[in-house]
Amino acid sequence: MLSHIRTMWLVFLHLFRKKATIEYPEEKVKLHPRYKGRIVLTRDPDGGERCVGCYLCAVACPVDCIALQATEDEQGRRYPEFFRINFSRCIFCGYCEEACPTYAIQLIPDFEMAEYRRQDLVFEKEDLLINSQGKYPGYNYYKVAGMDAGVKAKGTGKNEDPPVDIHSLLP
Amino acid sequence: MTSAQHIWIVLGILFVLLNIAAGLIWVERRLLALFQDRLGPNRAGPLGILIVLADTLKLFFKEDWIPPFADRWVFILSPAIVVGAVLMSFVIIPFAPGIVVADLNIGLLFFLAMSSLAVYSIVLGGWASNNKYALLGALRGASQMIAYEVFMGLSLMGVVMMTGSMRMADIVNAQKEAWFILTQPLGAIIFFIAGIAETHRLPFDIPEAESELIAGYHAEYSGMKFGMFFIGEYLGITLISAMMVTVFFGGWLGPAFLPAWGWFFVKTFLFIGLFILLRASLPRPRYDQLIGYGWKLMLPLVLANLLITGAVLLLLKN
Ligand code: SF4
Ligand code: SF4
């Protein structure tokens, strides 16, 4: 009984505590740099698209909300023909970001993307692609990728040996 | 008092009560939120008071569904019973000298009778819903009512013995020297506990018990029928608070800087706040514990209280 009264008294004292509520539209929430919000497609330092259309993000996505079609330009560089994320299904888990081998797809600290029509939540490539390198400045996938796609010649990248002539007998 | 005056009083009391019941939606949410370090609804209107309007409109526009397997007429009737029964109990409450619907000489008895009628709405509602959770809620409601009604009545009898009258105005006037909370503290506490059980508010909301029975007896109700249960509950809180104030806390009596009805409302709202505090702080006891407390602890206590009161009264008389 006494413990009940003590509980009631302690709960009563909470009336005068500082409130935890953040009154959102007036007072913004502090979002940290690694907050998993809206998804963007980033570019490499030369301004080319980072995405190579490998489908790994689409496979990793637990709710299957990424759709894309890969294609190649004349230099043999792969890029997505279309890239579509249905944000009305996305659960912002960030698995796509983890799966991406090229740091192309990234989640950024922004969640204010409410829409009146559901269809407006389907973002196409031109909505997703931003003119920035996102969280990994200076990273260029094709510079380390071991293939010639107009960025560098084959075998001249960092940590990369020149190609071996498999027809030669000498080591 | 002319009959025109009387009708005005009746309408006025009805108006004030229904508005209080609706306003409690806001009061309860805000207070609960504050107790939990939140802010609660504060957007619609000044301090969020228009949430009441929004909530009522929402309830009106909700689909009012009557399950095909329900007992149709009983199902429709039972939400009305609770509001009706509780409003009937307010008939005997004197808000200020002269402002009372009917100053019956059996006032307290009338209150006890009417407030116990409210349990019919639980039992009928749960039974008519034809749903096992609702039925379980109704069963619990019925047995809780029997367990608590007994000592609820008895806890008030000490006051009746000291006043020698069941008329509410007499009871209030008998507290001019000392409020009955001072002479009947045990009766007051037990009445309050029984009152919580009577209004089936947390921690004694066993017939509803969201976490065990979904919503208990009103699991199948929607729209304004559910709203009626809601209003009935808030009216019940107001009723028990008003009874506490009238019987134990001197009713409209108080220093003259507030009018009589002002004192009454201030005290009543303090008790309503206490109800909400209880909801915020105490966990729900198990069902058998609740019934056990009722029969094994409260009933003997209240009988002892009655005995002692009687003995002291006799002693003083001689
Ligand atoms: S954040 Fe998760 S749900 Fe959203 S697109 Fe990426 S993998 Fe799919
Ligand atoms: S965003 Fe990344 S994971 Fe997805 S297709 Fe493009 S390169 Fe592959």
TrEMBL record, chain A:
Binding positions for [4Fe-4S] cluster 2 per the UniProt entry: C61, C90, C93, C96
Membrane topology reported for the UniProt record: Peripheral membrane protein
GO CC, alphabetical: plasma membrane
Pfam families: Fer4_7 (PF12838)
Entry-linked InterPro entries: 4Fe4S_Fe-S-bd (IPR017896), 4Fe4S_Fe_S_CS (IPR017900), NADH_quinone_OxRdtase_chainI (IPR010226)
Binding site for [4Fe-4S] cluster 1: C51, C54, C57, C100
Function: NDH-1 shuttles electrons from NADH, via FMN and iron-sulfur (Fe-S) centers, to quinones in the respiratory chain. The immediate electron acceptor for the enzyme in this species is believed to be ubiquinone. Couples the redox reaction to proton translocation (for every two electrons transferred, four hydrogen ions are translocated across the cytoplasmic membrane), and thus conserves the redox energy in a proton gradient.
Family designation: Belongs to the complex I 23 kDa subunit family.
Protein name: NADH-quinone oxidoreductase subunit I
Lineage: Bacteria, Pseudomonadati, Bacteroidota, Chitinophagia, Chitinophagales
Gene behind this protein: nuoI
Automatic annotation (TrEMBL), chain B:
Keywords: Cell membrane, Membrane, NAD, Quinone, Translocase, Transmembrane, Transmembrane helix, Ubiquinone
InterPro entries with a match to the protein in the record: NADH_UbQ_OxRdtase_su1/FPO, NADH_UbQ_OxRdtase_su1_CS
Broad class of where this protein is predominantly found: membrane
Record keyword Coiled coil present: no
Secretion signal span: none
UniProt membrane topology term: Multi-pass membrane protein
Enzyme class: translocase
Transmembrane segments: 7-27, 73-100, 106-125, 146-166, 178-197, 234-254, 260-278, 290-316
Reactions it catalyzes: a quinone + NADH + 5 H(+)(in) = a quinol + NAD(+) + 4 H(+)(out)
EC number per UniProt: 7.1.1.-
One cellular component (GO) term of this entry: plasma membrane
GO molecular function per UniProt: NADH dehydrogenase activity; oxidoreductase activity, acting on NAD(P)H, quinone or similar compound as acceptor; quinone binding
GO terms for biological process, alphabetical: aerobic respiration
Subcellular location: Cell membrane; Membrane
Task performed by this protein: NDH-1 shuttles electrons from NADH, via FMN and iron-sulfur (Fe-S) centers, to quinones in the respiratory chain. The immediate electron acceptor for the enzyme in this species is believed to be ubiquinone. Couples the redox reaction to proton translocation (for every two electrons transferred, four hydrogen ions are translocated across the cytoplasmic membrane), and thus conserves the redox energy in a proton gradient. This subunit may bind ubiquinone.
PANTHER family: NADH DEHYDROGENASE SUBUNIT 1 (PTHR11432), NADH-UBIQUINONE OXIDOREDUCTASE CHAIN 1 (PTHR11432:SF3)
Subunit details: NDH-1 is composed of 14 different subunits. Subunits NuoA, H, J, K, L, M, N constitute the membrane sector of the complex.
Protein family (similarity comment): Belongs to the complex I subunit 1 family.
Protein name per its UniProtKB record: NADH-quinone oxidoreductase subunit H
